[in-house]
Each structure stands twice: as C-alpha cells, then as structure tokens.
Write a structure and sequence with these properties.
The structure is a single chain. This protein is α+β, with helices and mostly antiparallel strands and about 350 residues long. The protein is about 35% helix and about 15% strand. It is built from eleven helices and 14 strands. Helix 5 runs antiparallel to helix 11, helix 7 runs antiparallel to helix 10 and helix 10 packs antiparallel against helix 11.
Length: about 350
C-alpha cells in the first residue's frame, strides 16, 4: 500500500512541475464528455428548453500555477492555524496570508476526524483537472510530517447555508429573489462543466448549501471535492453525502451518476425557494414539500403561500417561481432517466432569469 501512495505522490509532483510550464494555456477545454444520458427530451411538463443556451455557460478559466508548500510556510501563513474559517466532516479550514495582499484558505485534513491520505490525494488529482470561474481553485498543497494540507482560493463571504440559515448571515439582510436565481445559475454552470466539459466527467457527490461559497450576494462558487469521483462504469459504492441532499436512487442502490448531483442541486433550489434547511427534523425538505409541489402547480397563489420563503414578503416573480418549482420536480424525480442533465438546467435557469419583470406575488 505504501509504495502505491509513494508512486502517486511522485506522479503528482512531476505533474505539478510540468504544469508550471503548461498550465497557463487553456487547460481543461478538452473534448466534450461522451457520457450519454437516457433523457434527451427538452420538453417537460410545460417547460420548453431551447436547443441552444440562452446565456453563457461560463468560460473555462486559465489554470493558475500550482505550488507545493512546506509545513513551516503554511504555519506562518495561517499564524499557526490560528484563524479558523470553516469546518467539514474530515477537515478544518484556516485563513492564510499568502503575500502581496493575497489570501488563501488552507484545508487541513484531520486523521482523527476520518481523513485519509488516499482521499487527500484523490482530491488533489481531481482539482488539478478542473478550472472554471464557478469552482473554487486549487493554489497549492503540502505533504509534510504527516500533515495533509490543501491551499485553496479564498472566497471572502459566507457559505449559502450561513447566509440563509443563520442569524449572523441574515444580519446583512434577507437574500433577494434575484440573488437566489443568480446563485442557482452559477452553481448549475459549475456542475454542467464538471459533468460535460471537464477533461474527464466528474461527479461532485456533495452538492449542498454549505459547499456553495458566496463572492457576494449574486455570485457563487462550488467548493469541496473531498467526495468527488470520476464518472465511469456504474458499480455499487459506499454511500457518501449529507442527509436531505442524497439522491434517493443512490441511497437505494449504491449507484452514483451525474444525475445524483442533479438531485442534490434540486434540493438546493428548494432551499432557495423556501428559505428552509434541507431537512425538517427527520423529514427531508424534498419529502416535506412534495404535496405542495406536486398537487398545487396550477394554483400559484396557494403554492406561493405554502412554499415561498415568507421572509421575502412575496417579492418574487410570478412566472419564475412556477418555473423553479417545475424544475425542482424534474430534478427530484426518483428515476434517473426522467431527470434533466445540468445543461438542460442551465438553459432553463437562463431563460428564467431573462423573464421580464412583472408584478410581484404580493
């Protein structure tokens, strides 16, 4: 086992050295994924999606140079891991001063919290393959004295979860309807890139509001590739993810696909609509809202009264709400083949955002 890990580390170091010369080119603009989805119908329950995108999918960014750090460098940059800005299931995240007025976020994998060298190396490997304006970028890493540290792009604002679901986050005011649409579109673009435009198709496997980091109230980036995996032949795998977001098909079969991310994204859209967390006690938000989403689609006033975040005081676009509820129903379908792919979701959201302003629901 140790020789395998050593070999992977050597390959990574060599790859990073080579990338210092090559990664300023348009890395990541490889051939389109040849993954085929079962559902190619662009018409769904009243939603019509054009064949071409109604807006820019987001340009694949130029990959920044990756460097390796010593433990002493990162201890100094983080003030001996003194300013914690986040925590995950297997890690803690610290603010780092990288010089020249630049900041980074240092993700420290914790063995005592279930972190492993294999997961750490897998995350580096995946982050080296991607570059998109709506994905948090890898700046560097450290493998030193049993420490496993990732140096990531620093996103200064709170996560979507904190912004929407904590009193501290709401001190800045309630996130507007327009902001919620814009954030949803940014994350849809990120997932479309991972599934269909990255050099190799990637399943994120942990799409949730706490992994959506806000640049401001209108723009967001998807973070945390700790559970991500390359999309390949379907075979049962250990179920990973967070309660309320996990695809029901994945839960029942152990099989994961890009359509599993689609399901999780549907839950995020429900959070944006309702202002509620992904779980309501022992019940998931998808289950809790199901009767209203499915049975009152033709009564927009009743649907809004039951589903729309009351903190918005009705300040939401009538037509956009209807489209988002239909999109959520589509994404949360129990059958993979009946769900849209992320390209279809991007098209739908672009069309939705471009709807002309009209009277609010109140």
């Amino acid at each position: 086992m140790m020789w395998i890990i050593a070999a992977v580390v050597v390959v990574l170091v060599v790859a990073i050295i080579l990338r210092k010369f090559a990664l300023t080119s348009n890395y990541g603009k490889g051939d389109k994924s040849d993954v085929q989805f079962d559902d190619h119908d662009h018409h769904h329950k009243g939603l019509t999606i054009s064949g071409s995108s109604a807006c820019d999918y987001g340009e694949v960014g130029v990959r920044m140079k990756i460097r390796s750090y010593t433990l002493e460098e990162l201890r100094g940059a983080t003030r001996d891991f003194g300013v914690q800005i986040g925590v995950g299931a297997t890690c803690r995240v610290y603010l780092a001063e990288l010089g020249d007025g630049k900041f980074g976020a240092v993700k420290r994998i914790m063995n005592e919290r279930g972190g492993s060298r294999r997961v750490f190396l897998d995350e580096i490997s995946l982050l080296l393959k991607v570059s998109h304006p709506n994905l948090v970028s890898l700046l560097g890493f450290c493998l030193d004295r049993e420490e496993q540290l990732l140096v990531l792009e620093y996103v200064p604002k709170r996560s979507l979860f904190e912004r929407m679901h904590t009193s501290e986050g709401q001190k800045a005011g309630i996130l507007s309807w327009e902001s919620r649409l814009s954030i949803g579109l940014d994350i849809a673009k990120a997932l479309h890139y991972l599934h269909s435009q990255a050099h190799q198709p990637i399943i994120h496997r942990d799409v949730k509001s706490s992994n959506i980091l806000l640049l401001d109230d209108n723009h967001a980036k998807l973070a945390d590739f700790g559970l991500s995996k390359l999309h390949g032949p379907l075979k049962p795998t250990t179920i990973k993810g967070s309660f309320g977001y996990i695809d029901t098909t994945y839960l029942n079969t152990g099989l994961v696909s890009p359509k599993s991310d689609v399901y999780s994204f549907g839950v995020v859209v429900l959070e944006l609509i309702t202002g509620l967390k992904s779980s309501q006690g022992p019940t998931t938000l998808a289950e809790w809202t199901h009767p209203w989403r499915m049975n009152h689609r033709n009564d927009i006033d009743l649907m809004a009264a039951m589903l729309l975040d009351p903190k918005l005081h009705g300040k939401a676009h009538f037509g956009q709400l209807r489209v988002l509820v239909e999109l959520t129903n589509w994404a949360l379908n129990d059958r993979w083949e009946a769900r849209p792919d992320m390209g279809q979701i991007v098209d739908t959201l672009c069309t939705c955002v471009q709807m002309q302003p009209s009277t609010c629901l109140n």
